[in-house]
Structures are given as C-alpha cells and as structure tokens.
Design a protein that fits this description.
The complex is a heterodimer. Chain A is mostly helical. Chain A has 4 helices and no strands. In chain B, helix 8 crosses helix 14. Chain B starts with a helix and ends with a helix. Classes of the chains: A mainly alpha, B alpha+beta.
C-alpha cells in the first residue's frame, strides 16, 4: 500500500486572500480611524483604531510578517 | 474639476476645525465671556447662575481638553481681573443692579471667594480629575481590550488542542497508508515532518503523500475563529461548526472520467452554483438518495445514472448512512478546477486547468462546542476516504458510459469555444492588424527608395493574392450550394 512515488508537497495556497479579506479590511479601517482620530482629535476614533488592529492581528495568516503587525499596532 | 477639488478641500479643513472648536465651546471654555456678551443686555440673575454653572461644568468635564480648558479659563479669569479693578465682584456685578443681588448674596460671595483666589479654582478641578469617574471611557475601553486578549488566548489554545487531538487519533491510520505525512514545503527533499502545519490561528494543514493511486492528499482543519471575539459573538446568533476538508489529488491514469457528488441538500445546492465542474456537468437538481437507502438528509448529484449505480455499493452506503450527520459533502470529479472564477467578458480565453480530485467536507460534531474527544468520532470517516480512493481507482465506466462522458465533455468544450469565439476572432483580427502595421512601418523606415518601392510592390502582390484566394473560396461555396 505504502510505496512508490513520494512527491514534493505543493503547500501552495491558491487564494487565501480571496477567501478571507477580514484582516486586510481591518487593517485599512484601523489606519483610517487612526488618521481620523489624529486629525480631528476624536478620542473614540483612536480607540476604535486600536480595536481594529487587534482584530486584524487575531485574524491574520501566519505567513505575514510580525514586523508588519507591530507597525500596524502603532 | 481641479478647482472643484481645491474648493472642497478648502471647505473641509475649516469645517473640521470648527467641529473641533465646537467641542471646546461645549466644555464651557469661552462660555463665560460669551455669555457675558450675549446676556449683558438682559439684566437677569440667571446670568449669574449661568456663569456659575459653566465653571462647575468645566471642572467635571473629562479629558485632555480639560487641561486646555482650565488654562484658558484661568487666562480669561486673569484677563477679567486685569481689566477690572481689583475690587472683587465688580466685573460681574457691573451689568447688574444692586437689587438683583439680594436674594443671591451667597452666590456672589462664593464667586467672590472664587474670584479672589484663582488658585482654588484650579485645585477644585484637579481634585475631581483624580477620581475614577472622569476616566470611565478609558476604563471601559481597556476592559474591552483585556477581554478581547483573554478570548484570543483561550480560543487559540482551544483550537490548538483540538487540532492536536485530531492529529493524534488519526496519525496511525495516516502513517499506515501514506509514506509521507506532513510536509510544509520548506525542505528541498520530501521528508516527513509528522506535524500539522499551522497556517492560521484557526486553520491547520496536513499534506500526505506516497500512496499507490493518488498523487497526494491535503487535509485542512478549518476550525471556527475562536480567537476572535467578534466571531464568537456572531456565532452565538448563527451556530456553525468546525470543518475538516480533505482534497485527494488522483493520478491521471487512476481515475475514470466522471463527476459525482453526494451530501446534504443545502451543501449540494451551494456547490452546484459555485463549482465549475458541478455546474457544467451535473445539470439536474440534487436527487434524493432514498432510492439507495440513504437517509433523507443526503442528496446526490451526478453526471450519469450509471455513475451513481457504480458508486453506491454496499460499503459506501453503510458509511454514508452511519455518518450522515457528519458529512457535509463528498465530490468525485475528473474535471475539478475549483470554484467558478468571476472573470470579465473578454478575458476568458482558455478553459481553466482541471485535475482529477476527490473532495470531502466533514462537519465536526458538537457544532461549535467541540471537545478533543469528538475528534475520535471522525476516525471512521478517514477510513471512508481511503476506501473511496481505492474505489475510484477500481471503478471504470463501461463503454456506453464512456461514450456519454466523452460526449458531455466535448459538449462543454464546444460551448466554451462558442462563448469565446467572438473574443478569439477579435484577438486574431488585432494580431493581423499589428502585422500589417509593422510591415508598413518597415517600409516607411526604409531609407533606400529602391528598397521601398520593392517592398511596397511585394506587399501589393501579397494583398492581391489574398483577394484572389477569397474569391476562389466564395466561388467554391457557391458551387457547393448549387
């Protein structure tokens, strides 16, 4: 049963980006809100931005850089 | 357009500033002065109370604006004092009659004492500032964040435990059937890592390979997003369950040409809409499997009746009936190319690539509240998968079936070609025009007039030949028609 043909695994992902856009959306929203909060001096905006970046981090794929995550937290 | 843009931007900036300033106004920052000017006409005592309350309002307000407000308030107070004489109460009592003050002696006294000592004004708000009340917003937010982080950690650990429980129960079966279990694609050679590959906090992959009939098998444990609090809350409204998705890629020679699917009715309807191959080859709606002894919850979609007959042997039926609640969908297809691609018109010039695959989607029992023990109940499903692989290899259509299958495939291809016929024509046309243009350019660029003339003549001759050919063709068609 076992034998022949060992193959190199693809480990290819067809389109993870297509299937779950949540982290990207959250990233974008977080940036928008943080800009709003800075410009218009609305504190609640800044808080929502922090929340968004947390959600984006929780949903992100492991293939993305941690550096990017940290910078998005900022 | 540009002017409009600039105009809008110019409007936006002061509007946002005015918004920001309005906040400050609300803090009662300038209200004292403001009110003074406004109400100066009305010799009301209420003016006095109004001036009192804004001061108090200032002190109980929150945030960073407090600091600025206080400073400004203090400044204005200073200004008032500087402007007026050092006699207290004069600044406020100027617009009033003395009579007005009779009933309100205390208040002016209070204001006197306050006005006397600016430092005390500052102290009062400072004291209030230190209390927790003024920070309720921050406390709320931080608590929320903490809750989110806690949930993240708990959810992540639970998913992790579930995945490893699954793997431990299935490890033996997999290792006995596959030479290579678990490979993440980073090593150059194929070595078995024997571990799950974690793609996400809620998705785990496992690639198995090295078996007779199949190229490989990719198992995806798609858990619920327990690490995301929003998702957890959403799930309370709409229950969902973890899923195990298995995709077996078959070798080309090991599977005959057919398309077949079985599963819950809802899943099949959805798949029929989404999947390219199911929508093209299986035209009927999902039929009930009751004919073969399957429970009502399951339905069948297949290309030909013969395929269903062949697939539904005793053991398969046994599997399907016993584990019907865990099965979401099972799809065998030799024309598998994934979900339908949404492409714009004019871009589709080639049929998508197809691979022979078997797809299984199982629901983990427990619908969200799974425990590691539930993973054991999925073990027989894995044996079903292995059995299906062998079966798919053994199953061969008879001659009739094969003819039908080939006809179907030819039909699908033809349809596709027809659809894209227009686009291909246009593409060919544009290519021809390009060639002509290139030719002309070459002729133009030729410096030598002699060569130019010769090239032009050559081009003319070619054109004439083409015309003649066309005429011949037309004549032939006419003759045939006659």
């Amino acid at each position: 049963r076992r034998p022949p043909a060992r193959y190199k695994p693809p480990a290819t992902e067809t389109n993870p980006a297509l299937e779950d856009p949540t982290p990207d959306y959250m990233n974008l929203l977080g940036m928008v809100f943080s800009m709003c909060g800075l410009m218009l001096k609305l504190k609640w905006c800044a808080w929502i931005a922090v929340y968004c970046s947390f959600i984006s981090f929780a949903n992100s794929r492991s293939s993305e850089d941690t550096k990017q995550m940290m910078s998005s937290f900022m | 357009m540009k002017n409009l843009y600039i105009f809008i931007v110019v409007l936006f900036i002061p509007w946002s500033f005015s918004l920001a300033k309005y906040d400050e106004f609300e803090d009662g920052d300038d209200i004292m002065e403001y009110d003074d000017n406004d109400f100066a006409e009305f010799e009301d005592v209420s003016e006095d109370t109004v001036t009192e309350s804004p001061q108090r309002i200032i002190t109980t307000e929150d945030d960073e604006e407090e600091a600025t407000v206080e400073l400004e308030g203090q400044d204005e107070n200073q200004e008032d004092f500087d402007d007026a004489d050092t006699q207290e109460g004069d600044t406020e009592s100027e617009p009033y009659d003395d009579e007005e003050f009779e009933g309100y002696e205390e208040k002016p006294d209070a204001s006197h004492s306050k006005n006397k000592d600016p430092i005390t004004i500052v102290n009062v708000p400072a004291h209030l500032q230190n209390s927790w009340e003024s920070y309720y917003m921050e406390i709320l937010m931080v608590t929320g964040l903490l809750a989110y982080i806690m949930n993240y950690i708990i959810g992540k650990n639970k998913n992790n435990r579930l995945a490893h429980a699954w793997f431990n129960t299935h490890r033996e079966l997999l290792e006995s059937n596959f030479a290579l279990v678990g490979d993440d694609g980073t090593n150059k050679e194929a070595t078995s890592t024997g571990k799950l590959n974690q793609e996400n906090e809620h998705i785990y992959n496992l690639w198995c390979s090295g078996r007779v009939c199949c190229e490989g098998m990719l198992i995806q444990l798609k858990f619920l997003k327990r690490q995301d609090l929003l998702n957890v809350l959403a799930r309370m409204m709409r229950p969902a369950s973890d899923q195990v998705q298995i995709k077996v890629t078959m070798n080309d020679e090991d599977m005959d040409t057919y398309v077949f699917a079985v599963g819950t009715r809802k899943a099949l309807v959805r798949l029929q809409k989404e999947m390219q191959d199911l929508s093209e080859f299986c035209s009927d709606k999902p039929k009930s499997g009751a004919k073969y002894g399957l429970p009502d919850s399951l339905a069948i979609l297949s290309e030909m009746g013969e395929v269903t007959e062949g697939m539904m042997d005793a053991k398969m039926i046994h599997f399907l009936t016993h584990y019907a609640d865990k099965i979401d969908s099972v799809q065998f297809s030799d024309q598998f190319s994934g979900p339908k691609l949404m492409q714009e018109e004019g871009q589709l010039t080639k049929l998508p690539e197809t691979k022979k695959t078997l797809l299984f989607t199982f629901n983990v029992p427990g619908s969200g509240n799974t425990s590691p023990k539930d993973m054991e109940s999925l073990l027989p499903l894995m044996s079903m998968v292995i059995y299906s692989i062998d079966k798919a290899k053994k199953f061969r259509l008879n001659r009739e079936g094969k003819q039908k299958a080939d006809k179907n495939r030819a039909r699908v291809e033809e349809n596709f070609l027809k659809l894209t016929h227009v686009q291909r024509q246009e593409a060919a046309q544009s290519r021809r025009e390009e060639k002509k243009r290139a030719e002309k350019e070459r002729i133009m660029n030729e410096e030598d007039p002699e060569k130019q003339r010769r090239l032009e003549e050559a081009a003319l001759r070619r054109e004439q030949k083409k015309l003649e050919k066309k005429q011949m063709k037309m004549k032939q068609i006419k003759v045939k028609a006659m």
